Amino acid sequence: MYHSFSVIMVAEGDSVTADCHIAAMESMTHSTGTPVFCTIVPPHVLDKLARAEDPALYRPARRTLERDALQRTRRRITTVRGCAARTAGEAADTPERTICDAERQEQLPGRVVRSEGQEPTDDATVNRAYTGLGATFELFLKEFGRKSIDGAGLPLDATVHYGEDYGNAFWDGERMVFGDGDGEIFLDFTLPVDVIGHELTHGVTQYTANLEYFGQSGALNESVSDVFGSLIKQYALNQTADRADWLIGAGLLAPRVTGEALRSMKAPGTAYDDDVLGKDPQPATMDDYVHTGSDNGGVHINSGIPNHAFYLAATELGGHAWEKAGQIWYDVLTGGELAADSDFEAFARLTVGAARDRFGTGAEEQALLKAWSRVGLTASDDG
Amino acid sequence: MRIQVKRTGGFAGIERRAEVDTSGRPDAPEWRALAEEATAGSSGSPPPGVPDGFAYEVTVDGRTVHWADPRLTPAQRELVGRVLKEGV
């Protein structure tokens, strides 16, 4: 249960006040004479209201939830730039990997257990992390000409066996960190290579567009990590778009869980449906966009929408997904025009422009316009 | 003492909640000491997190504090770990 209360002040003219119908909101007068609204609504009530059928109820509730979360969590999550980068002249065509073992403690970085060029260890988790980092390095270098995550040969560091039964993996701004899972719901987070690629791609995003980890820009940050995570798996397996599973985290769920993965780019919302985990909440289109204050505004939920657009474009274009759709996404991520606070539509428009720049007017541009349209976004840039 | 934990975010984006009511429990003093140590000096506003990191909202007898991986103290880790494991 949830018993804390949110208190936010909203200035006049703000969209929240424009159609405020929540009884608990009361009008107040600010000392400057500017009318403001003070909302004192328990988040669980807002959550319930946000799911109401009546737009008069859900609109203000959703906006309040998002605003509340935004104000509480205006986090500068991805702001570490340029740390430990080698100078451009030194950038190598080979990765420089170091795998550390946290030995089930939550202490970083842990003990170094395998460095670049060393033979495999007896620990399969260490070896999977090493190999996964190598696969990710290779895709970015060979297909996109990018030397490591910063483009300048940044060493790739990872820590495995983080924490006890720790059911998560994350990017801490400098390294990838993988837990072993509890064995009941999640298994070892190094098992799916797309999870390794996902974490490393957070690093690429940090050094390029640096998408803010909140709301739509945060969902784009997550989606970009899923897109390249999936591409790394497809590249390692040499799969064409029609042969790929388009799943994120396949093999990560314990056998007792009813589900095939954590997310599906092909069919968002269908990856799992389990008594304990619940049902995959991802939407595939803007009609089902989820308004929430949790998870930085649902960054792991609404990423389903751009994920699905990528899947639609890549399968329409056929062949290896990294060659066209992947190249276009990479061009947008690194092209310098993608603002840190971009929304889905801004991203969509940039993909259309990037498709024309790289492939001219033709099938690629048309595939993108169609893909974005099918998820409910207008991508035409009138160019 | 009532200790509630809400964990959000993470790679999976799946929320977990659990709470422990220590009243009447023989280990209540131990919980109280742990909760006090864990929440001492914690702020009500969420600290910066990291991509895919867990965020924790911990409420002890009505007072809510926020923590984010990977920057938890040992006492904070123990508290959220125990509540999520033993709580309902």
From TrEMBL, chain B:
InterPro entries: Emfourin. Residues 1-27 are annotated as: Disordered. It comes from the Bacteria. Residues 14-27 have a biased composition (Basic and acidic residues). It holds the Pfam family Emfourin. This is Metalloprotease.
